[in-house]
């Protein structure tokens, strides 16, 4: 996540998502060039991610756009994890949950490349995939 730069900065918000697997592996989405990784959020032992939602800022016309700013997820036991992303935008609906016994096992993102003087947004969309 890129921290807010103030009135005259070009903010991007969320620039990447990383899943850390319970067996020690990890998978990272395409990453924008700005910001830094926050502290990992984890489901309780034995639980899996089963649903998510994004906080997204709608296009603002001539003003600075950020697109996706934060992600939240639900664990199979009902715990809610929320990233420490930016406050811009509003939360979308929760995704359909993974089938019983399944959990998130992969991801795909839509990332805007740097605009070279234009308005950068970073991460624009996220898909999480379920496996049984």
Strand order of the largest sheet: 5-4-3-6
Secondary-structure element pattern, one letter each: EEEEEEEE
Give the CATH architecture. Aligned Prism
Please mark out the parts with pLDDT under 50 across 5 or more consecutive residues, or reply none: none
Shape: elongated
Q: How much strand content do the residues show? A: 25-35%
How many domains comprise the coordinates? Answer: 1
Q: How many angstroms does the end-to-end distance come to?
A: 30 Å
Could you walk me through the main structural features you see in this protein, from its secondary elements to its overall organization?
This protein is mainly β and 132 residues long. It is elongated and about 45 Å long. The model has no long low-confidence stretch (mean pLDDT 86). It has no helices and eight strands. Helix content is 0%, strand content 34%. It starts with 17 loop residues before the first strand and ends with a strand. The strands form three sheets. It has a four-stranded antiparallel sheet, with no helix packed on it. The chain has one domain (18-31, 46-131): Vitelline Membrane Outer Layer Protein I, subunit A (Aligned Prism), CATH 2.100.10.
């Amino acid at each position: 996540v890129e921290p807010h730069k103030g009135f005259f900065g070009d903010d991007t918000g969320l620039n990447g998502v990383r899943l850390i697997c319970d067996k020690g592996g990890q998978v990272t989405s395409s990453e924008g060039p700005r910001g830094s990784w926050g502290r990992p959020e984890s489901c309780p032992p034995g639980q899996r991610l089963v649903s998510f939602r994004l906080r997204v800022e709608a296009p603002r016309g001539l003003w600075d756009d950020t697109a996706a700013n934060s992600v939240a997820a639900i664990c199979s036991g009902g715990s809610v994890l929320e990233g420490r992303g930016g406050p811009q935008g509003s939360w979308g609906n929760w995704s359909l949950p993974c089938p019983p016994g399944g959990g998130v096992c992969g991801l795909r993102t839509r990332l805007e490349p740097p605009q070279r003087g234009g308005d950068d947004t970073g991460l624009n969309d996220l898909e999480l995939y379920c496996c049984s």
